[in-house]
Amino acid sequence: MSLCEVMVAASVFGVAASAALQVWSQSTAAVVRSERQQQQLVRIHAALERSEARLRQLAAAPAASSCAEARARISQALTPADPEVEQRLRPEGEGLMLELGPAPGRQRLLHPVAYGLCAAEP
Amino acid sequence: MPKRLLAIQGRDNGGFALPMAMAGALVLLLSSLSIHGAALQQAARVQAEWRARQRSDQLDATAQHVVAAWALHLQAGGSAAAAAPLGQAAQPLQLRSWTAAEDPDDGTISARFALAADSEAPARRYGVQVAGAAGRVLAFSGLEP
Predict the structure, then answer these.
(1) How far is Cα of residue B7 from the mean position of the Cα atoms in its chain?
(2) What stretch of H or E contains A71?
(3) ipTM of predicted complex
(4) What is this structure's pTM?
(5) Interface size, chain A vs chain B, as Cβ–Cβ contacts under 8 Å
(6) Which residues, numbered 33 to 72 in chain B, qualify as contacts with chain A under a Cβ-Cβ cut-off of 8 Å?
């Protein structure tokens, strides 16, 4: 075994170890990112479930006189409960679109007629 | 000593460092690639779950449009069983099935329908109950397959 062979062997192993470390680092970053997205998915789903439950409570009350009033009731009822979930309500046709983030996020239409908050209006 | 014998001796005296280093390098690279593959698979699984939830949101949104259109249709005196007016409300998704039945005792009308993204995609089923001609939805939910 010559010094030359030892140096070549060390170089080969060093290059391979360096490449493997880089790949492991990328893998770790990908796993962390996936875990974070999975947690976001669960949090956002829980926020959606809470919103749905809140709307069911609203539906148990007497119906609103108009769908505009029902939309206002929805806006008042859906207050953000989880600080790590971004929540936004925007008008969407006759209903409201509940957008929950961060990205990729979820969108849930809240149509006051479908939730029984008001009668259909021509 | 013949030259050939010297050459064989030279090979026999070759060190083990280079083969070991190459074997070690191969193990390191293969294991790191395997771990990376697993990480990418996990990422793909999470992404697929997001997409499935987002598709479900889209189906639910369309189902609400269908229900609202049906409630309006009933309020205007339309037939409970007529699915044709609701196909437009379901656009761009497909209204796969529609069955409605009236309960003469309490005057409510119940319907079950299925929506799908296209003809190949699996359908999601919904159930809705409306207070007759008043056009107010009493219950609406997605049904388990």
Answers:
(1) 66
(2) helix A67-77
(3) 0.85
(4) 0.83
(5) 150
(6) 33, 35-36, 38-40, 42-43, 45-47, 49-50, 53-54, 57, 60-61, 63-65, 67-68, 71-72
